[in-house]
Amino acid sequence: MKALFTVCLSLLLLASCGSQSSNDPVSPSETNGDFISQRHLHEKKYDGVHLNSEEEWDRLNGRSFERKFSHRKKLRSDVHTFGWHIYSNGSSWKHYDFSILWGISYFSYSIEPKTGNYKSIHQWKTTEMIDTAKAYNCKVFLSISNFGSENNALFLNNTKAQTTLMDSLVELLAYRSADGINIDFEGVPKASKNKFSSFIAAISKRLKRENPDYQISLCLYADDWNDIFDIKAIDAHVDFYTLMGYDYYGAFSKTTGPVTPFDTSEKFGKGLKASVQSYQDKGVQFDKLIVGLPYYGAEWMTTRKQPGSAVMKFRSHPPYKAIREVYIDSLRIPVQFDSASASTYLVVKEGKESYRQLFFEDRKSLGMKYDWIQQQKIKGVGFWALGYDDGDSQLWDLLNEKFSKD
Length: 406
Hints:
disordered N terminus, TIM Barrel, 8-stranded parallel β-barrel, 12 helices, alpha/beta, 5-stranded antiparallel sheet
């Protein structure tokens, strides 16, 4: 059993989305640095890794994508389901049930902040995923990413770089007959707030001048702690918002906790409902809001088994498929549910005085959040990231159960 445990944990770490030393939760002002999201950690992990095909990414990550899902039902017309496909997930799109997806965003055009050119667009020009998505009337977007306060300040102070970006996007969207962009700027400094709003207005006007049907979408932080998003100034230029409803706890946390707590609680603080309410208070209309949820977990080492324990060390952000294969299917670790946050977690004893705690979302916790999103008449749900289930059908089955036509 011990040998199996060691092998399985090694596989889990190989499949994880990156790791980082622990620090304070949640506000960067308490960490003496930028808040670092799982998306940003992913960027750090693969920065400098330039592969020429999806098959090379598959080999790098030890994945095989021969089987495809059957496409069973169709999405209801009143719901927008929106997923991000990360370049590092290679050919995982062969497992996607496009019939239940309204839109998919290819991640990403990574900005070179000094020039506005891309550091990489990976397989945007060649991936067959885009053609497959279109065959199922699934809209296709290109994510535009820029991480860190220094990079964002540099880019937002450079109108020439912004023009270069817009020129490049005009070409890239037309090349794939895409439907628009998803802007993901993380760590925008407070001093750049007005320039950020001006940039959103400018890029929206430019792209819509090229094609009035282009849609401009914007990623919102779970907690706009620095008050970056001036909704009144930008709303007329944004077709829909994608709330990054995750990373409430992660690599930066001093205590263990849910990636996406639902209600506000004394133990875990503000959760998803509070985030949605805060943006509604800012002026975001629910018919323009897509609430993104995680297909990954967060794992720490602690000296106690209780949720909310002090962190000894952050381990990784394992994807959903690895969590199921290693902990649930192979090691048969009992799944527990935290009612305070409506989140699933596992605890594994390791050594005499240490534990692994792993929080993640599964059918139960996601189902509760999907139901609430529908009850609130919010436009849709999003998934960071497609491919983290790696061919496991459970999360696709849940989407069909909750959002398909009868």
